[in-house]
Amino acid sequence: MKINEITKVLQPLGGRMIDAEADIKYLLTDSREMLIEPQATLFFAILTEHRDGAAFIQELIQKGVKNFVFSTHSKHKEELKSCFSANLFEVENVIDSLQALAAYKRSLYPDLPVIAITGSNGKTIVKEWLYQLLKEDFIITRSPKSYNSQIGVPLSVWQIDDNTQLGIFEAGISQLGEMAKLERIIRPTMGVVTYIGSEHGENFESIEQKRQEKMLLFSNCKVIIEEPTHQNIRTCAAVLRQLGYEEEQINRMLLLKTHETVLEVDLQALNRNVQYFRSKLKPETKLVCMVKAFAYGAGHVEVSKSLQQSRGADYFAVAVADEAAELRQSGVELPIIVMDPELTALKTIIENNAEPNISSFALLQDFMQAVSQAGLENYPIHIKIDSGMHRLGFESADIEKLLKILNSQHLVRVSSAFSHLATADEACWDEFTKQQIEYFSICSKQLQAGLPYKILRHILNSAGIERFAQYQYDMCRLGIGMYGFSAVGEKLENVCTLRTTILSVKTVRAGESIGYGRHTFLNEDRQIAVVPIGYADGFDRRLGNYGGEVIVRQKRCPVVGNVCMDLAMIDVTDTDAQVGDEAIIFGDKLPIEELATKLGTITYEILTSISRRVKRIYLN
Question: Which of 184, 361, 532, 553 has its CA 20 to 30 A from that of 352?
Fold first, then answer.
């Protein structure tokens, strides 16, 4: 869309237009997002109580962006007068302007069928399932991830173009008056209602008031679908029927769909958990967010991009160089520490501007050689101190030799010195933890005293932040705590929910056995369901033969028979379970901690064991 057409919609109060023919393809509200075509991007500098997007306009101009919308109330308004190379549009309210532009874009396609989805839970899952079910028959424009807010919806609808044959958008609200705005942007022809409950209801007097506000999305809809059981798969079936699919075709499509097992990752909950840990720290203390091992199974790219966008992290840390490369390729710009650098991957670390953990003299020499070959100087590194865990790191006796090497060259520069606590979450070992901290303090002070520049120091992990915040030094490392696990019993938010769907339900007679090896025999007739999750997905074999449970229709159902590679069997006799019903492996009502206790392991192992073949769905 040409910029002169856009200005007719925005009706700016002032500003400057130097190129009326600029063609805008992309809208941007976060300066940290990766730019595809900077000159074809229009940045909306949103002004809030705590942040002014106009502060990043100069930075974006340096990156090639030439088109900006800013608030007339911005404190940076005068500074922008010197931006002679950009189109600048001054408006009363930036979000209103963003919404107006998206509404105008939607109006250009009056005959486009659009499905709008709202509810308290299930919006993103239903949207993604509909997309998967319909993508072979339609060219679909849909909400990215969980873009369902006053900002997310217009960014989603803007993506409609001449090729779009069907739109699928989700819409969420947090207070009265918001849904009417979203309705004007989406203009749905079909409405879909998922479960509406008490979640996010703090600004509503009752669930009924919230429901009435949500239903405003469908003011001009020809069809509204609300499946009575609010089962996601049945909601999708109802939409397919409305679109004219035959019942046999729907059954075939849904049979393929129900083979899907998904890990739902709530990024809002993750960010709120991060803020809990930040509340334990001084404002100036930096935070390293650990996203190694595929971000503990949650997906390192999406988790990192969310934390970068929310400014929840100052650094990221990964295990190996390939993880750092993937983050860089996805647009992550924050510093990245590689905790376990491999000798064969030092070049990859440098190529991706990552920073290695140096834990031995041999690794230090190898990395300095790699930096020299790359023609660089003062490359940032992080020095590991072995304070008592006796895994990797320099000891006190090594510091003098280490300083001689560091001060005799200009290839590398120490960014931080750090160590690992072995038992910060176990009160019975608090004396040992304090010994570790004291040892680290001595070594890191010795290192700092011998260097002509300031370094950061950090030793606290998630449990350490909660239990030993007085030793936070300059930086802390947050890992498992992001996912809702507290060492002091604090009620944090669940982030990861593993869901699957029932493939079949059959009656198995008394005396018959279930599964491989005939380890489960039935004493009476039982209803046995099959779910498409197995040990290849991370569902541990030890959960079979009544070792574990899953939740179906709000009831716990035991796992029977041996867990197979791709399937598991559950006893659903005490429910009215049907094919297509959801089965929850872990989540709010079946905590990962409980699963870990049954298996005699830790929450880390449960999360990191979820196979990458399990699809991740992200809720913003």
Answer: 361
